[in-house]
Design brief:
- With 530 residues, the chain is an alpha+beta fold.
- The strands form four sheets. Strands 2-1-10-5-6 form a five-stranded mixed sheet. Strands 3, 4, 7, 8 and 9 form a five-stranded antiparallel sheet that branches. A five-stranded mixed sheet has the order 12-19-18-14-15, with no helix packed on it.
- The protein binds the ligand Nc1nc2c(c(=O)[nH]1)N[C@H]1C(S)=C(S)[C@@H](COP(=O)(O)O)O[C@H]1N2 and molybdenum atom.
- Molybdenum atom (MO) binds next to loops.
């Protein structure tokens, strides 16, 4: 005898929709925190746009006009809701089937994100969190629905009317029902709240992304010199001499990428100045701009680490802006502040000497990416980012080291942060076996604003051998180097060291990044096979 009442398909579908909605909200919130480019919805939407035939695109634009993106999102929401409802019903019929459907859609979202943004493990976090949340919630909701079924009064007969059966099973049924609805309600409310928050985030980011897309940067009054062919070592697998924007390391304290609108952006020069100066984005673009390749690095970069990148930056020399404001004689530091309140303390003399310290608007020929400080950031050759490279910059305050400190200084990092001469082996990768014979070693070395004179390699602590040093782009960038070494089968320990243009050898003592930058020689172990 069938002891289960009519399947509560409608509520199972609702459970599926609530679980998926919460998953989507979790994914979008994670993208809001990590990086707007990791939004699973945007990635899937972009994949849909790329996949539909051009005719459909034209049709969508003619029907929805500028609301075509909103229409796409509504369409996606309907499709996701339909699939989620199906997953809810499947899960209700048979355990784990609906969860599997949700998991598959999470993987599809992950695939969409991976094909549309840089392939980093971080790209997988939003879609996997989304799928994980949806699966867990589905597994929480559906068993409660079953509990409600099982506790219901069943097949009332003439001899045992429903009312009588209800006297025993009724309270249990009511309790199970309450439990199901409580969980459903909480899930729906949490996903709505998360969705609204993610939507606000996304709206602000989208408006700024669109404003960025409309910008045409002016040509530089002082253009960057073309990269000399001899600057490339030409070894396969080395770090590119100029780092593409999407591969550029990102370091900041911003929980979500600040969305700063260029139309309302102003930079104020304040503090110990003869006159305060205010600059709009349009003012800045109208200045004679300088374009230079500059390698920036993070103080947290460990020996051999990759928190360093080289880009072609377009901007206005900071010294010209400071000259307009007229620093007072006792000022010795510029405290730059970002839209999100982060600060860096830079020695005034570094910003007024002849180096190309820039109020940058462009990175490798594009407006700055949002993650790298759009609309305006500082780039200062020779100093670690934490004391110079303020992104989303909104204020330069002339002050004194005795009176003020940048964000990281009270947190255990040195007040001053000149970049230390350093070098890295990129090829062969540590721990990857190579064939005996001529083994090509290659990598980079840097001593920004001083330049590199010599790079040397030693094998198994033997004598140092001088590597071929490529022509640098300038002293403000890293240099590529390579060395061919004949090796017989065996295990080798290979170390690199650089000498800067002032003749100073890289510091050999192994020290951690705090408080003012790691030192020591990058060491790799190479396994040479016969
Ligand atoms: N607003 C803001 N700017 C910032 C930071 C930050 O936390 N907030 N971090 C700095 C640090 S420590 C570094 S190393 C560089 C990194 O710049 P990138 O993310 O463009 O590579 O940005 C600097 N600018
Ligand atoms: Mo940094």
């Amino acid at each position: 005898m069938q002891a289960v009442p009519r399947a509560r398909g409608g509520w199972a579908a609702a459970a599926g929709i609530a679980a998926a909605g919460a998953g989507v909200a979790v994914g979008e919130l994670a993208a809001g925190v990590l990086s707007p480019s990791l939004s699973p919805l945007t990635a899937v939407g972009g994949a849909v746009i790329d996949a539909v035939p051009p005719g459909v695109k034209d049709w969508a634009i003619s029907v929805f006009g500028t609301a075509d993106k909103a229409a796409l999102l509504v369409g996606m929401a309907l499709v996701i809701a339909a699939l989620a409802a199906l997953a809810g019903v499947l899960e209700y019929r048979r355990r784990f089937t609906g969860a599997a459907v949700m998991g598959i859609f999470g993987l599809a979202g992950a695939a969409a994100v991976l094909t549309r943004s840089q392939m980093t493990p971080m790209s997988l976090i939003p879609p996997l969190l989304a799928a994980g949340a949806a699966v867990v919630l589905l597994r929480v909701l559906v068993p409660r629905l079953h509990a409600w079924d099982v506790s219901m009064p069943v097949h009332p007969t003439a001899s045992q009317p429903a009312a009588a059966a209800g006297t025993t099973a009724g309270p249990v049924a009511a309790q199970s029902r309450r439990s199901f609805f409580q969980f459903l309600g909480v899930t729906a409310a949490a996903s709505a709240a998360g969705g609204v928050l993610a939507g606000i985030w996304r709206g602000a980011t989208m408006a700024v992304t669109e404003a960025r897309a409309r910008i045409t940067l002016p040509a530089a009054a002082s253009p960057a010199k073309p990269v000399p062919a001899a600057a490339e070592s030409g070894v396969a697998g080395t770090t590119p001499l100029v780092t593409p924007n999407r591969d550029f390391y990102r370091i900041d304290t911003a929980l979500s990428v600040p969305a700063v609108n260029p139309d309302s952006w102003v930079l104020k020069v304040t503090g110990k100045v003869a006159r305060e100066v205010q600059l709009s984005y349009a003012d800045l673009l109208a200045k004679p701009l300088t374009e230079r390749h500059i390698t920036i690095a993070c103080v947290s970069n460990g020996v051999g680490g990759d928190l360093i990148g080289n880009a072609r930056w377009l901007g206005w020399p900071v010294r010209e802006l400071l000259a307009l404001a007229g620093p007072q004689p006792d000022a010795d530091m510029v405290l730059s502040r970002s839209a999100d309140g982060w600060t860096a303390g830079t020695p005034l003399e570094v910003l007024t000497d002849n180096r190309d310290a820039l109020l940058a608007v462009g990175m490798n020929g594009e407006p700055l990416p949002l993650e790298h400080g759009f609309p305006v950031r500082l780039v200062v050759p020779g100093l670690y980012g934490y004391v110079s490279a303020t992104k989303w910059v909104t204020e330069l305050k002339l002050t004194r080291f005795a009176d003020d400190a940048g964000y990281w200084t009270p947190r255990g990092w040195s007040e001053r942060g000149p970049i230390k001469t350093s070098s890295r082996i990129d090829v062969p990768r540590s721990g990857r076996p190579v064939n005996a014979g001529t083994v090509v070693f290659a990598g980079v070395a840097w001593a920004q604003h001083t330049g590199i004179r010599k790079v040397e390699l030693r094998i198994n602590r033997g004598p140092w051998r001088e590597a071929d040093l490529a022509t640098g782009i300038s002293a403000d960038t890293w240099y590529q180097w390579k060395l061919d070494v004949d090796l017989t089968p065996g295990q080798y320990e290979v170390q690199v060291r650089a000498t800067n243009h002032a003749g100073e050898l890289q510091d050999e003592t192994a020290r951690p990044p705090a408080p003012d930058g790691a030192t020591g020689f990058h060491t790799v172990r190479v396994d040479v096979k016969s």
